[in-house]
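[recover] target loaded
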């Protein structure tokens, strides 16, 4: 496995841990539908929260959340719709992004962006 894949896995584990410590219930990880993948599906206050985790070793070129393109949003929304149908959920859905970046001392810092985009952004 490549180093960037290891870093991505570490970032997803950190994000899931962060969510649990913040009162979220993680109900699925790496949920796949066709070619789409949802990193984390969580629940809090009767909301289903779809979380895209973005990790970068540097923000020199772009912030991690800037990598969530319109195409990526369409893919996430499609997978979220499938999840909701497959598990017969009728909760309101929120789309969050968690970015993980090292600070100047190489400590990994989490930035949670609730309600980062809407399903309508996929259109």
């Amino acid at each position: 496995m490549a180093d960037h894949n290891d870093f991505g896995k570490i970032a997803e584990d950190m994000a899931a841990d962060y969510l649990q410590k913040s009162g979220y219930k993680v109900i699925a990880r790496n949920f796949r539908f066709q070619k789409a993948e949802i990193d984390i599906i969580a629940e809090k206050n009767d909301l289903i929260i779809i979380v895209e985790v973005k990790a970068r070793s540097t923000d020199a070129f772009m912030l991690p959340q800037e990598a969530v393109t319109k195409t990526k949003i369409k893919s996430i929304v499609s997978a979220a719709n499938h999840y909701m149908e497959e598990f017969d959920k009728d909760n309101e859905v929120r789309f969050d992004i968690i970015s993980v970046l090292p600070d100047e001392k190489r400590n990994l810092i989490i930035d949670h962006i609730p309600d980062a985009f809407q399903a309508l952004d996929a259109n």
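[recover] notes: The mean pLDDT is 87.
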